[in-house]
Amino acid sequence: MLKLNKEEPNNVLFNEEIKNAFLEEQINKNIITVETSNSYKRIFIKTSEIEQKMGKDLNKFNKEELEAVLFQFESKSRNTIESYARIISSYLHWSLQKGLASVNVLSSFRPVDFEKYIVNKEEYITEKTLRYYEDGCVNYQDAVILRLLFTGVAGKEMSEIKNLKKQDIDGENNRLRLINTLQADQNGNPVKYTERYLSVDDRTIDLIKGALQDRIYHKRNGEINQTANNNIRPYTDLVNSDYVIRSSITNTERLNSQVDKFLIYRRVEIIREYFGIENLTAKIIQRSGMIHQAEKLIEDNQLTLHDLKIVADRFNVKSYHNLKGLLTIENIRKVYPGNRLA
Questions:
Q1: DSSP per residue, 190-246
Q2: Do the beta carbons of residue 141 and residue 211 sit within 8 Å?
Q3: Has residue 226 got a pLDDT over 70?
Q4: pLDDT digits over 56-99, tens only?
Q5: Percent above pLDDT 90 for the chain
Q6: Backbone torsions φ then ψ of 91, nearest 5 degrees
């Protein structure tokens, strides 16, 4: 089997003129957006090395060669590998229409067929496990991030979390006003955004209130202890602002600004390391939350398209089709065995 280079891709497309013609036509026909085309291009960048080694375009690959491509993605979830395959399939379908291919091998693939291409399958957590991690957080600032991700708050580059302010919290009605920044200027200020409202539980509201009251941030979840022989300060002062998630006071120029997405990822990483959890990321927490929401909707051991749409809407996923590989009865049964499932 051909091995893809683990280093950062070189951003070169194989048969670039044809790939760009495909992307441009999809945009012009309003099949995809310019932003979506960037996601497509990233997939083609990933496949370019194996195309170069084979000396031919994807649209000339047979089934075994396309299977090699799917294996080399080393995807940890069926949802992800299906998404990648759907992009490649759309390109093969276009190539077929243009007379550049003789067959679209992927058109005959069923959702269950993608199971074989998954490596090191993702392990999702229950809401009970999430509470255990939250209770183990010394800082509300950390615990609330876990809860927000699990309950459906994220947005583009974590903007719904970054933008969340005190005035966006309706504690009486358990509702959040969420701003998803779609575009920002050079100073990071939003110039285009969408707004939505999300109903949440008491636990989420309580953690948000705790995070707003935090004035200091204990380093490494309180593992650092100051002694006579250790001059390391075990905590930092937090910026005083209306944002729920705030950074430490280390740069006076950022005293009133929102945090960046990397701070959110770092805090999740701190919790992962503290508990010694091998597989805890923002994406895993989000997907675990989706499974939790889907489990509550199941009736008669069935998950309907309407149920998928409800979960997609809550997590601000553009298309419920993107959740079909994740929200399966099999996945839900693994996380919540016996819970209203046959």
A1: EEEEEEEEEE--HHHHHHHHHHHH--EEEGGGGT---BTTB---SEEEBP-SSBSS-
A2: yes
A3: no
A4: 999 999 998 998 899 888 887 788 888 899 999 999 999 999 99
A5: 57
A6: -70, -40
